[in-house]
Amino acid sequence: MTDHTAVRRAPDPAADPAADPASDPATDAVDLSTQAPAALATALAPLPATPLLSRVHRPGDLQRLTSDELVALAAEIRAYLVATVARTGGHLGPNLGVVELTIALHRTFTSPRDTIIYDTGHQSYVHKLLTGRQDFSRLRERGGVSGYPARAESVHDVVENSHASTALSWADGIARANHLQGHDERHVVAVIGDGAMTGGMAWEALDNIADSDDKHLVIVVNDNGRSYAPTIGGLAHHLDALRTNPGYERMLAGVKRTLLTQGAPGRAAFDALHGLKRGLKDVLVPSAFFEDLGIKYTGPVDGHDITALEFALTRARQYAEPVIVHVITQKGRGFTPAENDVADRFHAVGRIHPETGLPVVASRFGWTAVFAEEILSLARADERIVGVTAAMQQPVGLQPLADALPGRVIDVGIAEQHALTASAGMAFAGLHPVVALYATFLNRAFDQLLMDVALHRAGVTVVLDRAGLTGTDGASHNGMWDMALLAHVPGLRLAAPRDEPTLREALRVAVGVEDGPTVVRYPKGSLPEPLTAVRVVGAGDQGAARDGDEEPFGAVDVLLDHRGEGTSPLLLVAVGAMAPQVVAAGRTLAEEGHDVVVAAPRWVVPVPGALVEMALTAAGVLVVEDGLVDGGIGSQLRDAVDEALAEAGAHPGPRGRGPVVDRLGVPRRFLPTASRDELLADFGMDEAGVTDRARRLAARC
């Protein structure tokens, strides 16, 4: 991962197993000088004392603490998490729930010789504190501690990918490699929870893990009954049943021992009762499912009792084959506002008051809220519309629809692939599914969108929240891949609204399409001021000679038109949320005497024919988008212009008859943790950067 700050690289655990170097939700860096008095007081409030935590510089230091000190340490960690995350925002509820579990893991296993993997990575804050990273003052900010595991921070961090349900596959691979290379003294621990067991990939991994009994692999199921909200699916009900039957295995084991000591009659009785036992297990204790796979199971264990956890984990470590340790935890434990938050137990928070849990600054009306309001209105008017979510009903804005129209929102769990294919089935049967996802998670279901939805021309709308640069959640959460990926899907139409009115219009259009997939994408955060078009060009003006011209998908809004009669202007194309920066740059260029037009296509895939015609009459074209610059909308427009010129026997550039087409967007690399504004500035995509790039383009034309 590329970063703009100097970091110490983690040493090789194979070379130095004892090496333990310390590292030198939607929140930007704080400028305290600009904060309101309440916010300033919260940001500057003294942090709680941590006399025990300050003695823990590496996991081995935990061995020197007494049982009473471990309990006190857990309390210190919770107080520190509340105080620090309140200042920066972040994943609070999940980490409050794994304090004792993380302490027990690091007392039982020897990291980094033993590999500990977190699924999902937002459960890793306590792990960071116990591995030398105790400065959370810039958590999830540039130069600070990442909100997810990061290899550049510590040798103890392994999997940076924060997409759920992957840890078991990682663990399977590492354990197999350890065995093949003769490292049978090493253990692999996968901590999976917060709904990740609802993902199909986790079950694919379990099937393979069960097929081998030569691995020192421990699977810790962190069962808090929730993902973002209460966990959905059959497995959740199974785990609930397990909670009520902790003594079942002990009873059956006693019966077995008694019968087998009675000689042949006892063995005969045992054989006769064996089928009954299995039937009882299937009914009463669904742990039988894991054992039927061939994986040892132990639990449930109180996830807030360090002694009980260490006992269970120590037994699991002694197995030379895979074993599941089922741990019951409470999300948000120890922080009353989180415990009382029925919606998601403070899964992720912005800056809050640490005493009350209330926001420091009230949230502005944002993109997600507009979607939530509009989709409810559309669903009331059209009974065919159903919402589909992958364990994120509230974060993506479907909660109001679920509350108002019960049964009209389907939560499939962390199963984006299933969400898309099931939606294709619903569309075939007469519904219009609206699948709401974070943009980064659509990557997981690209094949299903391509082959199940698009190939079958299914009327499915996909709404992508957190599209573009999301910043503080790091590389795996930036929703920057969508437009470059989706531009290649035949029959797909993609809208990139720039403000509230265009978002509402795009949704209304999208749910009316029944002959193929539609996608509406927007960033996270608050809404910009509306940008009104000075005029609109589209199919009515240009005819229907090119793909993308049909109404209403061919409409292109002109937001600024400053040019002399008969001149060939610079054409600045604003894609979606980049419109404010592009309009500001256009105004600056106009003041400097440039002929400039700013255009904002409402639908960007396929490229509107009207936009191609506008480009052909321009001296130069600059496309600005908050997605990948390679293969994105700028690339699509450039290709369309080249094709049009080839048809006319001309060539692009100042020596031919066509324009120079320049592209400005996100580079093709994994991005460091930073705010959206910082990343825009880094890539020359802020107002100053767009203006400078446009000036340079003008000099070439």
UniProtKB/TrEMBL annotation:
It comes from Actinomyces howellii. GO terms for biological process: isopentenyl diphosphate biosynthetic process, methylerythritol 4-phosphate pathway; terpenoid biosynthetic process; thiamine biosynthetic process. This is 1-deoxy-D-xylulose-5-phosphate synthase. Homodimer. Gene3D superfamilies: 3.40.50.920, 3.40.50.970. It comes from the Bacteria. It is an enzyme of class 2 (transferase). Residues 1-29 are annotated as: Disordered. Residues 1-11 have a biased composition (Basic and acidic residues). Thiamine diphosphate binds at residues 122, 162-164, 195-196, 224, 335, 416. Mg(2+) binds at residues 194, 224. Catalyzes the acyloin condensation reaction between C atoms 2 and 3 of pyruvate and glyceraldehyde 3-phosphate to yield 1-deoxy-D-xylulose-5-phosphate (DXP). Its EC number is 2.2.1.7. Residues 365-529 form the Transketolase-like pyrimidine-binding domain. One of its GO terms (molecular function) is thiamine pyrophosphate binding. Pathway: Metabolic intermediate biosynthesis; 1-deoxy-D-xylulose 5-phosphate biosynthesis; 1-deoxy-D-xylulose 5-phosphate from D-glyceraldehyde 3-phosphate and pyruvate: step 1/1. It catalyses: D-glyceraldehyde 3-phosphate + pyruvate + H(+) = 1-deoxy-D-xylulose 5-phosphate + CO2. The gene is dxs. HAMAP family: DXP_synth. Binds 1 thiamine pyrophosphate per subunit. Binds 1 Mg(2+) ion per subunit. Coiled coil: none annotated. GO terms for cellular component: cytosol. Belongs to the transketolase family. DXPS subfamily.
